[in-house]
Amino acid sequence: MTIRSHIRTRLTLWYVAIFGLLFAAYICTACFLEYWQLKQQLYHAEIQDMETVQGLLHFTPDGQVSLHEEYFNRPESRFLLDRLLEVLDLNGRVLFRNRRLDGNTLGNRGLPGEGVNGFSPRSLRLADGTPVLVVSHVHVLEQTTVLIRLAYSTEPLRLQTLHFLLLLTLVAPIALIAAGFAGYRFAIKVLDPLEQMARLTERITARRLNERIPVKNPDDELGHMALVLNGLLERLQQAFEKLQRFTSDVSHELRTPLAAIRSVGEVGLQEERDAEKYRDIIGSMLEEVAKLTTMIDTLLTIAHAESGAIQLRKTTFALMDLVHEAVAVVGVLAEDKKQTISVQGDQGAIVIADRNFLRMALVNLLDNAVKYSPSGSNIEITLRRDGAESGPGHFVELAIRDQGPGIPENAQQRVFDRFYRLDEARSRDSGGFGLGLPIAKWAVEVHGGSISVKTASPTGAIFCIKLPSREAARD
Ligand code: ADP
What is the pLDDT of residue 81? Predict the structure, then answer.
């Protein structure tokens, strides 16, 4: 049995069980009400009968009470067949007891207050076990006050109620079968949209991630579920496309250095050369291999960063110190190009961050500034706090300005995409794969900051990093 039919069966069983319980409760209540109503009818009939009986009682010469014989039992209710009658004087002496009582008694002496105010009802069992409903009434018969007790058996009431119960119980299996059938149909109807959804989802494969589940009513639960699934598909599609782009980008990037290695090797093998020449060939092959290794290392760092596997080791430090460290790293390259790097700004700008990752971001930006700026130019680094006072929403802003060609406005967003290069040939010659800025962006954003680039005047690029200041990071 499949899971689907499990749910269907379970729903039906639950439905039948709840229906059964409710039906049982209904039967009990109905029987109770039926019995209560019959008893009420009996009580009223007994009162009427009592009034009739009172007119027919009379004292006999020996001081006993008797019932006029001309009275015939004309019961208004079919239960009023076996009247039991007892008359006592106030001392509890029995003045009359009818034959039907057959030696039984409806109680001995009068109870306190019995029959004084109107007709007091009381249920009791006779000595032979017959359940009866007694109505007592105090009556003045020929100047003597007597207590008249009149009773009828409630056994017929019990039988009638049992009969009623039996009838309802006989209907129960039919009702339960009908409920089960209706419940099963209902479960199928409820689960049908889910089945449809499952069938549609089954059809969606990696190649058809653009398909969506139709949303009939976005406000009901199933519509909501379809929306959630569609959201999931959307995210999957985006991730899948990103992965595909990444794979094709990586293959594309690997192809060029590999082709270079291969062609250098092939040219080297074409003719006999001296050792010096072979050393040169191996040297340039190793250079390409080194570039490949760097690229793969960088890609691994990105993959790690994106999977969230990197744990930040945050410390509190002055950003200016880190700037000086990064400048020291690229200093040699700048010196080669006779460039100067000037640093100015707020020594008190403190951040809470992972020093290594922030240093990596700064080095990447400075390395680009050196790489893409002409020889003899100046690179300016300024550091300032956004607002003198500390507090939430306050940032530390670091700007790196160079005198290179700058980045055109239409590319200012895209330079942070992986493998994006403005001038592919020039960038690759200088060892770039278009991965430096994406890594810098990740390192800044993972600290709650942002990175952007704008055009400097008259020429050059200004890369801006905004990081939450220590005070803002604490909140
Ligand atoms: P790369 O390793 O190729 O430099 P990046 O991701 O660091 O990769 O930079 C992406 C592209 O952005 C570069 O190829 C270059 O075209 C451009 N770029 C980055 N920094 C600068 C800069 N300071 N001046 C001009 N162009 C830049």
Answer: 57
Residues of the domain holding 454: 312-474
Q: Buried (b) or exposed (e) across 144-170, using 16+ Cβ within 10 A?
A: eebbbbbbbbbebbeeebeebbeebee
DSSP 110: P
pLDDT for position 323: 96
pLDDT at 77: 43
- pLDDT tens for each residue of 391-443: 555 889 999 999 999 999 999 999 999 888 887 665 666 667 888 999 999 99
Q: pTM higher than 0.85, yes or no?
A: no
Q: Are residues 465 and 316 in the same domain?
A: yes
What DSSP string describes 238-255?
HHHHHHHHHHHHHHHHHH
CA distance 17 to 329: 77
> Is residue 469 a contact partner of residue 385, using CB atoms and an 8 Å limit?
yes
Give the pLDDT score at 475: 58
Closest Cα to residue 222, out of 231, 234, 235, 213?
213
282 and 326, same domain (yes or no): no
State which ligand 1 atom lies nearest to the alpha carbon of 435. Answer: 6
Looking at residue 474, what is its pLDDT? 62
φ, ψ for residue 110, nearest 5 deg: -65, 140
Preceding omega of 156 cis (within 30 degrees of 0): no
Taking CB atoms and a 6 Å cutoff, what residues make up the pocket around ligand 1? 364, 368-369, 372, 402, 404-405, 407, 415, 420-423, 427, 432-437, 461
| Residue 78: per-residue pLDDT | 45
Pocket test for ligand 1, best of 370, 372, 435 (most atoms within 8 A of CB): 372
Give the residue whose CA is nearest to atom 20 of ligand 1: 368
Q: Give the pLDDT of residue 1.
A: 46
Among 272, 306, 340, the domain-final residue is 306
pLDDT at 425: 62
Cβ neighbours of residue 209 closer than 8 Å, sequence gap 6 or more: 233, 236, 237, 240
Q: What is the per-residue pLDDT for 195?
A: 86
The structure tokens 């594309």 sit at: 252
Segments of the chain with pLDDT less than 70: 1-5, 69-81, 387-393, 424-431, 473-475
In ligand 1, the atom with minimum distance to the C-alpha of 422 is 16
- The total number of structural domains in the chain stands at 3
Distance 204 CA to ligand 1 centre (A): 40
Residue 212 falls inside a structural domain:
no
Instruction: Name the residue of 402, 421, 442 to mutate for ligand 1: max ligand atoms within 8 A of Cβ.
Output: 421
Instruction: Provide Rg for the chain, Cα atoms.
Output: 51
